[in-house]
Structures are given as C-alpha cells and as structure tokens.
Design goal:
CATH architecture: Alpha-Beta Complex
Order of helices and strands: HEEEH
Distance between the termini: 33 Å
Number of domains: 1
Oligomer: single chain
CATH topology: Sufe protein. Chain: A
Number of strands: 3
Radius of gyration: 14 Å
Shape: globular
Structural class: alpha+beta
Strand content: 25-35%
CATH class: Alpha Beta
Helix content: 25-40%
C-alpha cells in the first residue's frame, strides 16, 4: 500500500473515531437529511448561516465509517465559508 493510501486511511479513521462537529444545532438552524437505502447510512446536516457565511455546522447520523468520516470532514471544510462557495 502506498504512503498516500495510508494517509487517506489514517485521515478517514481519525474523523470516524473522533468526529468533528457532531451534534445538533438549535433552531433557527437549517436542517436537511439524506439517506442511502442500499446500505442504511443516514445523515442530518444542521447549518447556522449568518450574513452569507456558514457560521456553524453540525451533523448527526449513523452508518459506515466512510459516511461518518465524510460528514465530519465536510463540516470542517465548510465552516466559516461563504454560502455561495459551499
């Protein structure tokens, strides 16, 4: 296995074991959800948008390590970004 593959695996496992931004945001946060009926993954995303920026973002859900790590990485990537860039 290459060093890059090892790095990807480490990042995914880190976000799965220690998810960033896990939890709910209270109203007036916007909430949307999605699921994959084939594998049973379910994710809810909560967004607090202020002045055109993603002020805060959280997620809840359950599923495989890839879906949970992806949600964690996505929340870390979009926090503080302009909504039109997300």
């Amino acid at each position: 296995m290459s060093n890059l593959e090892d790095l990807y695996r480490e990042v995914i496992l880190d976000h799965y074991r220690t998810p960033r931004n896990k939890g709910e945001l209270p109203p007036p946060a916007v909430c949307t959800e999605g699921s994959n009926p084939l594998c049973g993954d379910e994710i809810q995303i909560f967004l607090d948008v202020r002045d055109g920026l993603v002020h805060d973002v959280r997620f809840t859900g359950h599923g495989c390590s890839i879906s949970q790590a992806s949600a964690s990485m996505m929340t870390a990537a979009v926090k503080g970004k302009p909504v039109d860039a997300v």
